[in-house]
Sequence to fold (332 residues):
Amino acid sequence: MLATRLIAVGDIRTIEITMPQPGPGEILVQVEAAGICGTDRHLFKGEFPSVPGKTLGHEFSGIVVDSNGTDIPLGARVTCDPNDWCGECDQCRRGRVNLCANNIATGIARDGGFAEFCAFPAAKAHQLPATLDPLHGAFCEPLACTLHGMDLGAAKPGERVLIIGGGVIGLLAVQLAKLAGCEVMLLTRSATNQELGRALGADLVAGSEDRARVQWPAGADLVVECAGVAATVAMSPGLTRTGGRIVILGVLPTGEHVEIEPFDLLFREIQMHFSFINPFTHERAAQLIADGTISVAPLVTRTISLHEAADAIAEPAPAGEVRAIVVPSMQN
Ligand code: NAP
Fold:
């Protein structure tokens, strides 16, 4: 079968490999859709820890073709929670499963969803309706991560929430903040993504830090950084109301530093949280996608084959791209 593998940092290829066999407690899924995430590009560039030779793809869903004695029905559509915590390490025993010392992430540390088939632990499969658009299942993982960030931010009805970054994570965060009953502003530079943000519920949009400050001079109760660049992390405190909260969801390259002023954060008692992956949020994400509460169709900007996936990951996302979805059944 075909799979898109990170051979080494800077070397990604779509190659023919042997069909995976599900091990004990695992199922085999025929992949229907797998999203290319910013983290895949970070992995390619060596900005996020990787394991050489693994098939990438950690945002995917598909149809169970071998339930391997587990209770997941054959033919069911499932989304994979890629993070497989051990349950035994110090962090797991404290309930901080996303910080598991032994997490083996599907699509990073074991073969993932940029492939025709993928085997993964049955316990990490969450069922989706047979009627769901197959492309939509690929959004469960990014939504699960965004849910964790929004849980940390604990937005209350009536609060002002500023989302920075109009990619998938930011546009999902806009929708979650609206669901929480908040007034929402989206700060992102591209006019297209601003329009998309408005269509998905943002009350206000801004193309720059200055424009955001003009609209909310006292700042936001909650700032959610979803761009993953140093400049937007650095601007977050200045856009936060005194006594407010910041959640950083964006991933900066390892080793990158950002200047902040601790006195300002202390004197205005601003809480700054960092949100990492999806502890216990994947089932909620699957439910929100399954019942259509969160709109994901507008986030699909192109569908590509496995043959096109390696280049699409190696190159920066084209202007206006929100999410490219790899569809292994596409031929070319
Ligand atoms: P993405 O598609 O690259 O979106 C990032 C957006 O940030 C872009 O659309 C860009 O839009 C905007 N941006 C960049 N520079 C900006 C600036 N100076 N001011 C305002 N907006 C700016 O990425 P994504 O898939 O949505 O993911 C966002 C980040 O979250 C990435 O770093 C990703 O690795 C991370 N992530 C974290 C987790 C977690 O568990 N914490 C999970 C998944 C993803 P404009 O060009 O319109 O400005």
The mean pLDDT is 97. The chain is about 25% helix and 25% strand. The longest helix spans residues 140-153. Residues 144-274 form a domain with the Rossmann fold fold (CATH 3.40.50.720).
